[in-house]
Design goal:
With 270 residues, the protein is mainly α. 62% of the residues lie in helices and 2% in strands. It is built from eight helices and two strands, in the order H-H-H-H-E-H-H-E-H-H.
C-alpha cells in the first residue's frame, strides 16, 4: 500500500567544499626566525649580555628584510603573512629595543627612563599600524617616517658601540634618553626616508657595483659596531635633509597622498 505520494529519489546536491586556506611555510619561517631574534635579544639583555642582545636585533633585521622578498619571489604573499610580519616587527623592533635600552641605561633615570622607553615602544606600534593602513597611498620609493628596523638599529647600535668601548649605560644614560626619544618620535613623523624598494635584484648591474659591495662588506668587518651605527645615523638623519630640500624647492614634503576616504586630512600631509 502506498499513501499516494511518490518518494523523493533525487538527493539534493551537496555544496562543494571550500578549499582550506593553508599557511605558506617558507616566508613565515623567516618571520618566525626574526621574531626569535627579538625574543633572544630580550633574554640576553635580562642576563646582562648586551652585545649578544644587539646581535640578535640585527639578525632579526636581516631576516625581516628577506621574508617579504622571499614571498614575492615565490609568489607566496598572504594576508596572514602580512599580519604575522607586523606582529614580529613589534616585538623585534618595538618592544625589544625599548626594554634593552631601559635595562642598559634608562633604569637609572627613574620615571624619565621608563617614559622614554614607553614612548619608543608606543611610537613603534603607531608606526606599524599606520604603515599597514597607508600602504596604498604612500609613494613606494619612500617610507613615511623612520622605519622601525632603522629606529631599532639606532638604539641598539649605540648600545653595541658603547658596550664594545667599555662604556657603562649609567655613564651615558641621558644620551641614551635623547636617542631613544629621537628614534621613537621620528618613526611617527611624515618625514620621507628612502625605501630602496625600487632596487631590483633581478636586474643586471655593472661589475663596479659588485666590487663596491665587496668593499663595503670589508669596511664593515673592520669595526662592525662603529660602521653599522654610523651608517644608520646617516640614514636616520637623511629623511630630515630630504624633507628640508623638498620644502626649499617648493615640492610636497610628505610622501603620502591624500586619501579619498579621509578628505579632512588633506592639510596634514603638506
Amino acid at each position: 500500500m502506498t499513501d499516494g505520494s511518490e518518494p523523493n529519489t533525487k538527493l539534493e546536491a551537496s555544496e562543494p567544499r571550500k578549499p582550506r586556506k593553508g599557511i605558506y611555510v617558507l616566508p613565515n619561517l623567516f618571520t618566525l626566525a626574526a621574531l626569535f631574534g627579538g625574543f633572544y635579544s630580550i633574554v640576553m639583555a635580562m642576563n646582562g649580555r648586551f652585545e649578544q642582545a644587539a646581535i640578535g636585533v640585527f639578525c632579526a633585521m636581516v631576516l625581516d628584510s628577506l621574508d617579504g622578498r622571499v614571498a614575492r619571489m615565490t609568489n607566496t604573499q598572504s594576508a596572514f603573512g602580512e599580519q604575522m610580519d607586523s606582529l614580529a616587527d613589534m616585538v623585534s623592533f618595538g618592544a625589544a629595543p625599548a626594554l634593552i635600552a631601559y635595562v642598559w641605561a634608562l633604569t637609572g633615570l627613574g620615571r624619565w627612563g621608563w617614559i622614554a622607553a614607553f614612548v619608543y615602544c608606543a611610537c613603534a606600534a603607531l608606526r606599524l599600524a599606520r604603515f599597514n593602513v597607508n600602504t596604498s597611498v604612500v609613494d613606494k620609493r619612500f617610507f613615511q617616517g623612520l622605519p622601525s628596523p632603522a629606529a631599532a638599529a639606532l638604539v641598539i647600535g649605540f648600545i653595541w658601540l658603547m658596550t664594545e668601548a667599555g662604556v657603562k649605560g649609567a655613564e651615558v644614560s641621558w644620551l641614551m634618553f635623547g636617542l631613544t626619544l629621537y628614534a621613537g618620535l621620528t618613526m611617527v613623523t611624515n618625514v620621507p626616508f628612502y625605501s630602496f624598494k625600487d632596487v631590483s635584484l633581478k636586474r643586471s648591474v655593472p661589475f663596479a657595483v659588485i666590487v663596491s659591495i665587496a668593499l663595503g662588506i670589508a669596511v664593515i668587518n673592520i669595526d662592525p659596531p662603529t660602521v653599522i651605527f654610523g651608517l644608520f645615523v646617516l640614514y636616520g638623519t637623511s629623511g630630515y635633509a630630504l624633507y628640508a630640500w623638498r620644502r626649499s624647492k617648493g615640492l610636497q614634503a610628505s610622501v603620502i597622498s591624500t586619501s579619498t576616504e579621509e578628505p579632512d586630512e588633506r592639510d596634514l600631509h603638506k
